[in-house]
Amino acid sequence: MELTTQQIEQMQQQYPLLSNLIKLKPVVWLNPKRKRMEQVTDLPVTFKDLKEAEETWQRFAPYLMKVFAETAETGGIIESVLRPAFRMQKSLELYYEKPLPGKLYVKCDNELPVAGSVKARGGFFEVLRYAEALALDAGLIRREDSYEWFATKAAKEFFSGYSIGVGSTGNLGLSIGIISAELGFQVTVYMSADAKAWKKDLLRDKGVEVVEFAGDFSEAVTTGRKATLAVANGYFVDDEKSRELFLGYSVAALRLKEQLEQQEIRVDKEHPLFVYLPCGVGGAPGGIAFGLRHVFGDHVHPVFVEPTHSPAVLLGLMTGLKSGICVQDVGIDNETEADGLAVGRPSSFASESSEQLISGVATIEDEALFPLLALLKDSEALKIEPSAAAGFTGPFAIASTDYAKDHGIALEKATHIVWLTGGALVPDAEMAGFYERGRKKMRG
Hints:
The protein is of the alpha/beta class and 444 residues long. It is 45% helix and 13% strand. The protein has 18 helices and 11 strands. It has a 7-stranded mixed beta sheet, with helices on both faces. It has a 4-stranded parallel beta sheet with strand order 6-5-4-7, with helices on both faces. Helix 8 links the parallel strand 5 (186-191) and strand 6.
């Protein structure tokens, strides 16, 4: 929608935080509509759906283990480790010149098998669920059969008669492209202007058709959707509206519960859990937050982090307009170095649940991402891309507010988890450039 100067001024009076948002200043927004789980209503999916999604992952585990050797260690499950990051915590305290009450951990989706980012959870899941539906409908397999069948020549020949499309800033396109091509689908990824060249090259190497698009994420999605659905047997993975992507991400909460128990980390009223999730269109963090709230109830506090130039979800939730408003409507350019987060309009599907479930949203400037990336490499020897560094500002952003006081939380006993969303597939030369940029920023 096109807003006049007068309309924007009226919105600034109604939502005072909007002024700093428009000025591209880092902000922290606390969600006044967060509900206790007993009060949550009308979510687009249920906990039963989440459990069924996990069952789907389990059925496909033998297939994934067969075609992707790197999943053998986890029995064909696409999962990452939960690591303590106490050295990083000390580094952050020195960098921000502030103490961080509680203990810091990182969820290493930057090292997820095969696709190297959080998008493998949702992207792989949606394509696998679609492939399963096609094969079941055609009578080629039953749910009780071994899903190693999906690795056969017959399966590839069958799926070659179907096409899949997706619009992406990069990482979702990688996950959709990799798994779709492996199954035998004809796959096209519509890449927005901010997508990295190496991601396009990697997809082409996998046999994926890449359509380079001059516009931003929303335009790539719109164009890709139209082109894909115009083709017979075309299926579009719609990051703005997808139920299946959302469910694929949500299963992470079940896995995290097991990891916390294995490390004897308590989550209860006296030991709150804060989870910081880099956010683009909102599907991945929204799905994870949905799962977290169902698994840990009111004791978990999901916080999204967005670039100052692309605060799509914050704007949509703060105004209540959700996907009815984009950052360009208020004069924000949606141009960010955090390519995976370069989204101007939030997911309509994810926004419905995030509005009730998350604790808030913080924003971070692009140049602040690189020192955090460098600090993580120096302290924990972990490599991430710039967008994945966004979460590290979250604990300090929340600590700067009255959130803990208002919720009766003792941060000293809190567990903070920063979700590392991508990085494993970044070329070494590009990663070295990110690191040096971060070190230079800290020196200067």
